[in-house]
Design a protein that fits this description.
Blueprint lengths: L1 H21 L2 H18 L1 H14 L5 H23 L6 H7 L6 H12 L14 H11 L13 H5 L14
Helix pairs in contact: 1-2, 1-4, 2-4, 3-4, 5-7
């Protein structure tokens, strides 16, 4: 039963990502956001879980405010999926144009000092927004980096690297 669910999730993810990749990124974003709004309406169990989690995290918010936050989270998921569908074709120049990779001056100074003596640097970031794009952008603009994330619950998605960014193509000069 679990394998069947994983296979269906894989096939659905593959179809959605393929469709979004065929569309221009701006259109893919609109389609993915519309799809995420559809999911918000048609997946009541997921909506209940999200509202309960927000109630635990933000008890001071009204139900209407929590619902608005959850709706915005679903829409943001659509934006992330649209971006993700286009990762494979992105160049370092694409990422540099879309993602701010500068560091505050004090952090930049510490970064350069560590690199000058051959030491590595660890960046700790929250899992907010499209953090995968930040990892790719930093690799594209600065130097190759690695990031740590737990494996996906669905091993089919994990094993086929649909959930991990593909290597970046170097820009053509």
């Amino acid at each position: 039963m679990k394998f069947a669910r994983h296979l269906l999730e894989y096939l659905a993810a593959r179809a959605v990502l393929t469709l979004l990749r065929l569309l221009p990124r701006s259109l893919a974003t609109g389609v993915a956001m519309a799809g995420s709004r559809f999911l918000f309406v048609w997946l009541p169990r997921l909506r209940r879980i999200g509202l309960r989690n927000l109630e635990l995290a933000f008890p001071q918010l009204s139900l209407a405010e929590r619902r608005q936050v959850l709706e915005q989270s679903f829409e943001n998921f659509g934006r992330i999926i649209a971006d993700f569908a286009h990762f494979r074709d992105a160049t370092p120049t694409d990422f540099a144009a879309r993602v701010e990779t500068s560091l505050p001056q004090a952090s930049e100074t510490r970064y350069r000092a560590a690199k000058a003596v051959g030491r590595g640097v660890i960046f700790v970031t929250p899992h907010l927004g499209n953090w995968e794009m930040l990892a790719l952008a930093m690799s594209a603009v600065r130097e190759p980096i690695a990031y740590l994330a737990r494996p996906l619950d669905n091993p089919l998605l994990e094993s086929l690297h649909l959930a991990r960014p593909q290597p970046l193509r170097q820009p053509s000069h």
